# Entry
Amino acid sequence: MRLVLAILVGKLIAFLTKLFKIGGGSAAPGLYALKIYPNLVEKLAAQIPQTVIITGTNGKTTTSKMLSSFAKNANLNVLRNPTGSNLERGVASALISHSNFLAEIKNIDLAIWELDEAAFNNIAIKLDPQIIVFLNIFRDQLDRYGEIDSVLKNWSKTLESLPKSTIIFTNGDDQNTLKLSKNFTGLSFKFGVKDYKIVGEAIKKQFEQENLDFEAKNIKQQGLNGLSFDLSINHQTSTIHLPVPGIYHIYDALAALAVGYQLNLNVSEMIKSLKTYQPAFGRFEKFSLTPQGWEAKSQNMEGYIFLIKNPAGATQVFQTIAKEIKSNDHLLLALNDNLADGTDVSWIWDSQFELLTNTTTFVCSGTRARDLAVRLKYAGVALDNIKIEADLKHAFKLAKKDLAGRLFILSTYTAMLELQKILANSGVKKNYWEGV
# Structure
């Protein structure tokens, strides 16, 4: 009865949050349901025949979205936490949304869970996964996770407690995740990009290669329009087109394709579906701006949203967009220090903001807007080009003012959620939980 009550309360909270447009019901339902029935995740997840877990510092949401689209195209019924709510409360909320009032989950073929690096250790055993993907390990939220060695040590301990039948996929270009596959006694596969390695916080050209099971070759980048690469699967080489830029997105696609192949999904159909892949909210999300009533100089403005949350991810975004930014583009940077962002924002000093100095207007916002402004000053940005507005709604208006090019929005997690609401209320895009 407590489980049924927990599901009832969770469903009610999900309904109310959507009714009053205060969220997508991706965390709160699970948060309160778990207080009523702490074993909810384990109880409901046991009804799902096959489970994949995706974890790592960067790329979890993109990889899970790609894999989910592959599975759905193969007519599989998929359950996942699509909005990136990757703590136990997010998993619980997703399970509740697919459960009936008798605590039954029916007609689900596959669960795909993205898990926070630390939450993985507490939730993985409860989910009893058949496949686990380790994308990468970078410094991220040191106040929560600690250093990389601590994350790796905890992952290794968790793997030891899982059944030996578990299959793992690791990033073979990341020396840290590579250690997991070398020490794992079960079946493991490695994916990576030819002539690239993850060195410290960056993806760099390096020709010393690990023996990879899934390897991308012949990379061709096409600016903000995306990229292409060749991949051999089952003795057949195919050229894959991704409509999103950045070498880091190749790793996400490789992981999704490798797992899809393990799940016996049709390789040609997976590759075909990537051509029309639509990014998850905030992960190179593109939208059209409507300048009616705005102080704008262009009638064909575009906007882009990027999530930045640690030195590695931020620098990879900077490297991707730096060559594409024009002098008439504006950048809106938003830095929060809430718990979900990480309360330690010193990571901005290890991120290469120097790559962005050719922009004429920077608007700094969020709870740590002034920290961003100081960082830009030391990156070499002229003080006249830096505007500070802590309020995100006002900052968005300021970033649009006199805009003659494109608007690039780069923000941390909670700031991105707030900006999504602002954009949705402006009629620019749908709420982030719609259509996921």
In short: Residues 283-425 form a domain with the Protein-Tyrosine Phosphatase; Chain A fold (CATH 3.90.190.20). The chain has two domains: 2-274, 283-425.
